[in-house]
């Protein structure tokens, strides 16, 4: 729930998908690899957001690019993973900043928690004009 609105969606991993020919070329024309795709609705408004890494992949490069749409508005952001001494294996923590249309968005992410069937991540954010 975000501000009392239900967030419904599905996250997929395009890198593990297979096409009708049995293989996938995950590189985009800009030399980036889509590692996650999130599609769903928030408060009845559609969103589709991909998370991208620059090729060649280097986990030490330090950031992901988020691109997509929310209710027809362009979504563009940078997500920077952070490390802390208290991080658990499989846990993600980070900061992000970007825009949704004319709105500026920044905040932090932590998670996921849960089991193999259902996981929950948390984000705290600020939206400004």
| Order of adjacent strands in the largest pleated sheet | 1-2-3-4-5-6-7-8
Class derived from helix and strand content? mainly beta
Radius of gyration from the alpha-carbon trace, in angstroms: 15 Å
Number of helices: 0
User: What is the residue-averaged pLDDT?
Assistant: 77
Helix share bin: under 10%
Distance between the termini: 23 Å
Total beta-strand segments: 8
Beta strand %: over 45%
- How many strands, which pairing sense, and closed or not: the largest β-sheet? 8 strands, antiparallel
Low-confidence segments, given as residue ranges, are: 17-24
- Total individual domains: 1
User: What pattern of helices and strands is seen along the backbone?
Assistant: EEEEEEEE
User: Looking at the structure, what is the overall shape?
Assistant: globular
What is the oligomer described by this structure? single chain
